[in-house]
Amino acid sequence: MTDASANPLLSPSTLPYGLPPYAQIRPEHYLPAFEVAFDEHLQEIAAITRVRSTPTFENTMVPLENSGRLLHDVATAFYTVSSADATEKIQQIEEQLAPLMAAHQDAIQLDGRLYARIKSLHDRLDDLDLAPEEHYLVQRWYREMTHAGAGLDDAAKAEVTALNTQLSTLTTTFDKNLLADTNDLAVLFRDADDLAGLTDGELSAAAQAAAERGLDGAYLVTLPLFTGHPYLAGMHDRDARRRIMDASRARGSRGNANDNRDVLRQIVRLRAERAALLGYDSHAAYVTADETAGNPQAVRDLLHRLAAPAARNARREQAALQAMIDESGDRFELAAHDWAFYTEKVRQAEYAIDTAALRPWFEAERVLRDGVFFAATRLYGVTFTERDDLQAYHPDARVFEVHNADGSAQGLYILDLYTRDTKRGGAWMNSIVDQSALRGTKAVVVNNLNVSKPAPGQPTLLSFDEVSTLFHEFGHALHGLFATVTYPHFAGTEVFRDFVEFPSQVNEMWMLWPEVLDNYARHIETGEPLPADVVDKLRASETFNQGFATSEYLAAAWLDQAWHTLTEQQAAQEIDVAGFEASALADIGLDNPAVPTRYSSTYFQHVFSGGYSAGYYSYIWSEVLDADTVEWFKENGGLTRENGDRFREKLLGVGGSKDPLEAYRDFRGRDADIAPLLKRRGLDG
After folding, report:
1. Are residue 10 and residue 147 in the same domain, yes or no?
2. Are 487 and 388 members of one domain?
3. Count of CB atoms within 10 A of residue 556's CB?
4. Local confidence band at 1 (pLDDT 50, 70, 90 cut-offs)
5. Does 146 share its domain with 215?
6. SS3 220
7. Residue 659 belongs to a domain with what CATH number?
8. pTM for this one?
């Protein structure tokens, strides 16, 4: 234990916007701070439930929304670090914390006295004179507590709590195993010739990764979260490509200490058991009941509608790749580790585009300032000023202050670009401080990517996909920054899971918007813009390889549904993970060996430790809204302040304070049309 008076987490931050004082925080501060915060939160809830007078919005909902502030501050400070800089000490703390956090959340959400007060308000909702956000707040708290099991009897609540505690431990274990196995399986090359075809920047990054592990003179290819690897598109050596793909697909299933197969089986079983206890046929039924989809059948219908044309397109693409192999005189059948390499050859043949050769036009700093920030300034009038005087949780994490066009402060944006052994895979956004008028706070948001860090003095050149990822994640950041609500329950990206990807997907549009692209895509050495004919070919090739891209995504989304539509009885059986996965993919016709699922079960972090369980479909679900919104922008003049202000006011600005589909109708004037999505992905034929 540390002295509470000396614990920087237990005093309000004196830094701008409430940024945690990371320079002062040590690992040993976290658990004691959580203990104090848990106790304080419980006392705040008890004070609400001790009130004997009739429940009102003022004596119930307002203090409820004000409660738990210390816990929120401690938790967001910690979980930002545990995902982006999970040292051994931080991982140990997270393992200890997981069951404590689950038990505390249940103590609040399953509190019968609190639930009775909220139910009383909900039953009288039409008679209360409440503002729209207040009205919706009562609805959401009642719905969420009911959904969590607050209406169950005490024995059933105890079972739910026990299951949640076990699940919190298991999901933490899954994440820890995946991080360890991903690091262990990084592929070592002793000879640069094995990596022929990589750019100087990519070689520099591989050499730097090796040097950081004390392997001077060697090259280490670290693994991204998804099945493939950006380097596969350029590597000439087929065996080297195979080694990388094999390592990626082996994660979590090697029979070692990091094997995730039994962990995920237990997660699936306990989730199904909890769903049954709460009155649902499956975990997917439980999850989708409180999403815009409503039920698993709606999800399955959409995935089925898209899977067959996607698989057909992928087979056509595969035939073209195989023809190129055959014409070259090589005698082998296209495998998964060949797809990206020969796709680039076909892309060059059909469109004269080599995406690997585009890296010199995508220098990271220019992409950020003259692309991502530039588009946001043009749309919303916001500006970004780097604050070198503010320290984030890691030296690589940079802090920017955000101001509106009128000079008013909007919040802080933190960018943590580079991969490291202590950072989980993938890319994400999270909030450290949520905006709330009730609490008088403004937003502090973080974007994390996993870009390979070149040697000192070398520029960071992004791949085409990494540029897209940065624009995407920044869309989440804008959502977190712009949401302007009274109550913290609705802050930032606190919206339905199958809606949350929508704003980020819309923001990807600006990556290739003419005035944005011309502003940032400048050659690192000459300053020349990306040639106009290349830009035209990029746009012409937007549906190129979409059979593969759509199929690998849909395979993962279907796999998520397959695991989580199991009933309690089915999940209780001993399941062979590889066999289950193969059967599920065959069931939807996405069992093409050359097109592996984007995430296999044992490294499917999104659904087994990342909050997307039974919800990975949300990317394509949200893309229906996204594609329709892109059409609206195109029809209404594109990158203008008028359009940006409308999108900010009607969608980004409302956070979770109203039904998301209602917010979409406010913006668009109607429900979304699926046709633009089908056209974008080449599925309309």
Report:
1. yes
2. yes
3. 26
4. very low
5. no
6. strand
7. 1.10.1370.40
8. 0.94
**Same domain for 81 and 217?**
no
Residue whose tokens read 């987490």:
9
Dihedral, CA of residue 651, residue 294, residue 496 and residue 568, to nearest 10? -170
Where residue 577 falls (left for φ over 0; alpha for ψ -120 to 50; beta otherwise) is alpha
Q: How high does pLDDT run on average in the chain?
A: 96
Q: Give the integer Cα–Cα distance in Å for 399 and 389.
A: 9
The answer to the question of residue 177 being in a domain is: no
HSE at residue 232, side-chain half, CA atoms within 13 A, is 26
The residue with tokens 């909030």 is: 431
- pLDDT above 70 for 493: yes
Domain count, the chain: 3
The pair phi, psi for residue 205, each rounded to 5°, is: -65, -40
Structure tokens at 644: 């940006």
How many residues comprise the chain?
Answer: 685
Structure confidence at residue 357 (pLDDT):
86
Q: Which two tokens stand for residue 267?
A: 């997660």
Pairing of the two strands 397-403 and 383-386: antiparallel
Which residue matches tokens 């609540």? 157
Residue type, 574: E
Whether 338 contacts 479, CB under 8 Å:
no
Give me 36's structure tokens. 């104090």
Residue 103 domain-assigned? Answer: yes
- In the three-class reduction of DSSP (H, G, I as helix; E, B as strand; rest coil), residue 188 is classed as strand
Q: How distant, in Å, are the alpha carbons of 203, 217, 453, 455 from that of 210? A: 11, 8, 11, 11
Tell me if 70 sits within 8 A of 40, measured CB to CB.
yes
Q: What does the angle CA 681 – CA 284 – CA 254 come to, to the nearest 5 degrees?
A: 80
| Residue 480, token pair as written in the block | 């977190």
Q: Supply the DSSP symbol for 87.
A: -
Helix, strand, coil % (nearest 5) of the chain?
A: 60, 5, 35
Measured between alpha carbons, how far is 9 from 190 in angstroms, rounded to an integer? 46
pLDDT mean over 616-620: 97
* Contact between residue 600 and residue 227 where contact means Cβ atoms under 8 Å apart: yes
Percent of the chain scored above 70 by pLDDT?
Answer: 99
Q: Which domain holds residue 199?
A: 185-250
| Residues 200, 92 within the same domain | no
Closest CA to 284 of 553, 574, 558, 596: 558
Does 132 fall in a domain?
yes
Q: Tell me, what amino acid is at 344? A: E
Domain membership flag for residue 670: yes
Residue 187, helix vs strand vs coil: strand
> Which pLDDT tens digit goes with each residue over 337-371?
999 999 999 999 888 888 888 999 999 999 999 99
Rounded Cα distance between 520 and 492, Å, is 28
Could you give the CA distance from residue 522 to residue 518 in angstroms, rounded to a whole number?
7
Active-site annotation holder among 473, 494, 581, 623: 473
Provide the residue type at 404 as one letter: N
* 473 catalytically annotated: yes
pLDDT band at 542 (very low <50, low <70, confident <90, very high): confident
How far is residue 313 from each of residues 549, 550, 558, 620, measured CA to CA in Å? 10, 9, 18, 17
Beta strands 443-451 and 409-418, pairing class: parallel
